[in-house]
Design brief:
The structure holds two protein chains of two kinds. Chain A is an alpha/beta fold. Chain A contains 13 helices and 13 strands. In chain A, 35% of the residues lie in helices and 28% in strands. Chain B is built from 13 helices and four strands. The chains are: A alpha/beta, B mainly alpha.
Chain lengths: 317, 344
């Protein structure tokens, strides 16, 4: 048992000025952050942003070039085996032995941990009870990710690292996995999640760290980030002929204008003033609005405003 | 060891992966069986090997044909001279006999069958011309077990099989685990790395024992090949070989992280030995200057030791040098591999 004091006084994770270089490439470029025990933190960013490298250093799988890392109050150099017993990991993709069954795989991993949950419980937690006798090779993508999660859970970890747990899954499987992760959060585990799905971070994380080109570009709760960087509302429209950016920028409450493939995207403070103004501007310019939609801004919009790139563009690349 | 001991669980993982993988079982058991059947048939000792001899159509051909037909081991066939020459150069006949008052022979002395046919045919012709033997020689016909090609081949194939299954079984599995990030996932747990490697060696030993038993049984049933020495010694040698080559497999797999590199390295490690280490023919066929290298190779040591036990009935005591050589190769590979091994 760990003393209550450990949880009260210590950060679950402390990262200070972390740098990781591979030859000419700097994957992590001076990242610092800390994680409160019992929370779910999302590392958000496009592929190649340095999320996985950061997480693998936290997991003790890679050595940092410089900077320091403390996990559960310990350094990796001190007692790696004891630390490994206290964390659970789901890598971005692990190909478990295809010829083994779900149950055999979880049992194997259970044998490495001094303590831990029962095999049955780990399988039940990820909802794979019906598939426990199935060979890993016969599982669907979503079921494989659940297996990876069961394997991460079987040591009853205090800290859980999930590296893009839902990448490549269909929306139904993704929602299913979110339910499982929410269940874990309800049991008070600290979770570090990397993702490039904004919806995922918004739904699961209390705290989001946005990473781009190896640096932290913003940090806060999803609501704080949206309020600070998202504008409050987003208007997307298409006009023929197109309206000039100057006209758009002059609309009341407009904080940013981006045009892409003919669709213009405006961040505005209030729809009540901006939409009528937009309609008037179109009329003045003699343009017809082909399409018009609005939504409350999301983390996706935050990312776009911060980096000028959409996370969705990075998918599948 | 309890059922939940990590070493037992890792060992189970290895064995299950093998038993549930038909292609792995094919390469370990079926392939050597098919190979030995094919080679055993190709090089079988024909009880009454018949050498075909052409008798050129001419007056007197009938008498000559009759004389040759009554000689054991010769099978005369009448043909025109041109056809006979073609048959000789095509290897279809061993000898061409041209009957006449002064009979002639056409033969290629570089071909062993030609030399044998010449001796037999000359003898038959002389006898039919009235020659009397000056000596009566007593002759007893025996077929020595252990002197056939298949007796030579089986221990070599066992050595070859042990090397292939060990190098590929250990090396290829590890590279696949690295490629699928399973190695990385395993070392992120508190698992002891030595347990993983030990599980590979233990499953290898079990498989090598099964492989050896299988070889002994099928060689006996199919070809009546027996092990002259002790079966226990034969088995122990096989296990030593499997451990040595398991170490080599580990060394080959230390850094490779893609299938092409792994394939290349494993072929590089095994193919030369398959050629020079006396699997299909004796290593002594290679020139003397190559012998120091060939004799230092682990497969040569294993094959020679297996043959010494199987054919000459030698004991393990006489094989100390070869066992030390195997142990040396295994130990050096293992230690180097542990130093260089890339887990992530």
């Amino acid at each position: 048992m760990h003393k209550l004091q450990d949880f009260v006084t210590a950060w679950a994770i402390e990262v200070d000025a972390l740098v990781k270089r591979f030859d000419a490439l700097t994957a992590v470029d001076g990242i610092s952050f800390s994680v409160t025990p019992g929370t779910c933190v999302g590392l958000l960013g496009p592929n190649g942003a340095g999320k996985t490298t950061t997480v693998e250093i936290l997991e003790g799988l890679q050595e940092p070039t410089s900077g320091s890392v403390r996990v559960l109050g310990k350094r990796w150099a001190d007692d790696p085996e004891a630390l490994r017993a206290r964390i659970g990991i789901a890598l971005q993709e692990t190909r478990f032995y295809e010829k083994l069954t779900v149950r055999e795989t979880v049992t194997l991993f259970r044998s490495f941990y001094p303590g831990g949950t029962g095999v049955d419980r780990a399988i039940a937690q990820v909802d794979l009870g019906e598939k426990q006798g199935a060979r890993v090779g016969k599982l669907s993508g979503g079921q494989r990710q659940r297996l990876a999660l069961a394997v991460a859970l079987v040591g009853d970890p205090e800290l859980l690292f999930l590296d893009e747990p839902t990448t490549g899954l269909d929306p139904v499987s993704r929602r299913g996995l979110w339910d499982v992760i929410e269940g874990l959060k309800a049991r008070g585990r600290t979770v570090v999640l990397t993702t490039h799905y904004m919806e995922e971070a918004q739904r699961l994380c209390e705290d989001v760290i946005i990473v781009d080109h190896g640096k932290v570009v913003a940090r806060g709760s999803p609501a704080e980030l949206v309020a600070a960087f998202g504008g409050e509302q987003i208007i997307e429209f298409e006009a023929t002929p197109a309206l000039s950016p100057e006209v758009c920028r002059a609309l009341p409450g407009c904080s940013s204008v981006r045009a892409r493939n003919g669709t213009v995207r405006l961040s505005v403070r209030g729809l009540a003033e901006a939409v009528p103004a937009l309609l008037r501007a179109a009329e003045t310019a003699g343009a017809t609005l082909v399409q018009l939609s609005t939504h409350a801004s999301t983390l996706d919009d935050v990312f776009l405003n911060l980096t000028g790139r959409s996370l969705r563009d990075e998918e599948g690349s | 060891m309890s059922r939940s001991h990590p070493l037992w669980q890792l060992f189970l993982m290895r064995m299950r992966a093998l038993w549930r993988e038909p292609s792995a079982l094919f390469w370990v058991f079926v392939f050597p069986l098919l190979l030995s059947i094919a080679l055993g048939l190709a090089f079988r000792n024909q009880g009454a090997a018949q050498l075909t001899v052409a008798v050129v159509e001419s007056p007197g051909a009938a008498e000559v044909e009759e004389a040759l037909r009554s000689t054991a081991g010769l099978r005369p066939e009448r043909m025109e001279l041109a056809a006979a020459r073609r048959a000789l150069s095509g290897g279809k006949v061993a000898l061409v006999v041209m009957p006449g008052p002064a009979p002639g022979l056409l033969v290629d002395p570089g071909v062993p069958e030609g030399r044998t046919a010449r001796l037999l045919a000359l003898d038959a012709l002389q006898r039919s011309a009235g020659r009397r033997d000056a000596l009566v020689v007593a002759e007893e016909q025996v077929s020595t077990r252990g002197a056939r090609y298949i007796d030579f081949l089986i221990p070599g194939l066992l050595g070859f099989g042990l090397m292939s299954s060990s190098v590929w079984g250990v090396g290829w599995s590890l590279v696949q685990m690295r490629m699928g990030k399973l190695l990385k996932r395993l070392v992120a747990t508190p698992m002891r790395r030595s347990h993983l490697l030990l599980s590979f060696l233990l499953s290898r030993l079990l498989l090598a024992a099964a492989e050896t038993a299988f070889f002994v049984v099928f060689a006996r049933l199919l070809f009546d090949v027996r092990v002259a020495g002790s079966l226990v010694d034969y088995g122990l040698l096989s296990l030593a070989g499997a451990l040595c080559f398991g170490g080599l497999g580990l060394l080959v797999a230390t850094r490779a992280d893609n299938a092409e590199t792994a394939n290349g390295l494993m072929n590089l490690a095994t193919l030369p030995m398959i050629v020079v280490s006396g699997v299909f023919f004796a290593a002594s066929n290679f020139p003397p200057w190559m012998q120091p290298i060939i004799q230092a190779l682990p497969l040569t040591a294993l094959n020679d030791a297996l043959r010494a036990v199987a054919i000459d009935g030698a004991g393990l005591a006489g094989q100390t040098g070869r066992l030390l050589l195997l142990a040396g190769w295994g130990a050096v590979s293992f230690v180097l591999a542990l130093r260089l091994f890339r887990w992530t």
